[in-house]
Amino acid sequence: SLSHDQNSLSFLFSNFNYDNTQSSLYQFYLEGADHDWLPMTSVNHADYSSLSPGTYHFHLRSLGD
Fold first, then answer.
1. Which end of the chain is more exposed for a tag (fewer CB within 10 A), N or C?
2. Residue 24 pLDDT > 90
3. Would you give the DSSP letter of residue 53?
4. Nearest 5°: phi and psi at 31?
5. Are 58 and 6 in contact (CB under 8 A)?
6. Beta strands in the chain (DSSP E)
């Protein structure tokens, strides 16, 4: 939950596949900010800014070898 004086969130994530991090893919969305899952990416972080006060839920799924 973000209060009136907060407006940004950052997430760092991993699927713990340390042997082959380049083949890991992630898909995520921030409920309350995104309308749908964002495209698959190998980037393991998500940054959100200019968010309105309120409650958000971060959803993440991973695909890897």
1. N
2. no
3. S
4. -65, 125
5. no
6. 9-12, 25-31, 45-48, 57-63
3-state secondary structure of 18: helix
The pTM score is 0.81
Place of tokens 């958000």: 56
Angle (CA) 24-16-22 rounded to 5° is: 25
Q: Is the dihedral of CA 36, 41, 45, 51 positive or negative?
A: negative
* pLDDT the model gives residue 15: 79
Count of residues making up the chain: 65
User: Which letter does DSSP use for residue 16 in this model?
Assistant: S
Structure tokens that stand for 18 in this block: 């340390």
> Alpha-carbon distance 12 to 40, whole Å?
15
CA distance from start to end of the chain: 34
Residue 33 DSSP class = T
